[in-house]
Amino acid sequence: MGRAPCCDKANVKKGPWSPEEDSKLKQYIEKYGTGGNWIALPQKAGLKRCGKSCRLRWLNYLRPNIKHGEFSDVEDRVICSLFANIGSRWSIIAAQLPGRTDNDIKNYWNTKLKKKIMAMAPQSQRKSPPFPSSHQTDPPLPSHSLLSIYKDAGASFSYYSQNKSFTGFDPISQTPSGLLSNNSVSLATNSLPFQPNSQEGLLFSPMQYYHPAVKDNFLVFGSEASCSSNSDGNCSQISYGRSEIKQEDMGFHSLISTNGYENQNQNFMLSHGNRGAENLNQWVEKPNGNIGETPLDYDLVEDVGQLISSGSDNNNINLCIDSLLIDENKTQEKAMYYY
DNA sequence: AATCTGTCCAACCGCACCTGT
DNA sequence: GACAGGTGCGGTTGGACAGAT
């Protein structure tokens, strides 16, 4: 038995939103908020719409600070970089591009950026399109294949952005194991697929990431990354697999900070399941050695690992592995959750 | 001018996950 | 633990539009 539909589909309007509907929804949310219940919202707001439709309309179009229009080169690079690393986790990518929505980015990727990259990719790769398309029936390639293709395209990135010091996926000194033995690992700026560029209006201050430590075939945080937004559309969580990095103003652990972005000096804490602060600093081993349910492809882990290099002569971007996150003893043989 | 073709993007759909009971 | 309801996400669709023929 399938689950009940979220709304009475016979009595809800579908299709494009009228200005009147937009106005109603906007006014209602500005006045009362979402109330934490999208399903009930349309009725309260006097809209004959499905709650999901209202949510989508608000998040993608009506909420404040939505940015429409052309994507900048910097945004292109961020998207390419993140896509190469985490795949089509549009919500996470969107979280790094303030004002952009996941839907926006997804559409941009599918309609423009993908083609742009394909045009730059070597001919041999172009013969077999690496990207899934809504207009093609080819199954999507596994993520590691995508990664390798992006690497190939990376050389072209250098050409494409040669005036902007941007190289796609330059070879990086590999040392995934370094993640496990050092308390802190920095990611050299030149090992990233994009360079901060203040001329384009974005200034990256020292940026620190929690990076999922790599061990064997697994990322310590898990293989799946996702980000969830709160009801107001602001990303509040980044999660890897079943573990989460939750943004909380608790002054806890490391942080991602970006100048020029809305989300400055974000502090992250780790949580799991209940999304609360309890149970922090506990390692849990998963008997089967998998993170979540999905073991990572070795190639993928290797690729991710190669994005990490020790030492940095540039403060623009640093990747730090907090010693609290690394329990070297427990990385032996088994993957684990941190929560 | 009419038709065809491709592009873009807002919106929908189904699924997985989370939470509360 | 099972179930139901709500939420969020990624994939896909369909219509509007622009350019080509």
From TrEMBL:
Residues of the HTH myb-type domain: 9-66, 67-117
Gene3D superfamilies: Homeodomain-like
Keywords: DNA-binding, Nucleus, Repeat, Transcription, Transcription regulation
Composition skew (Polar residues), residue ranges: 122-137
Major subcellular site: nucleus
Subcellular location: Nucleus
Identification of the protein by name: Uncharacterized protein
InterPro entries xref list: Homeodomain-like_sf, Myb_dom, SANT/Myb
Region (Disordered): 120-140
Record-annotated Myb-like domain positions: 9-62, 63-113
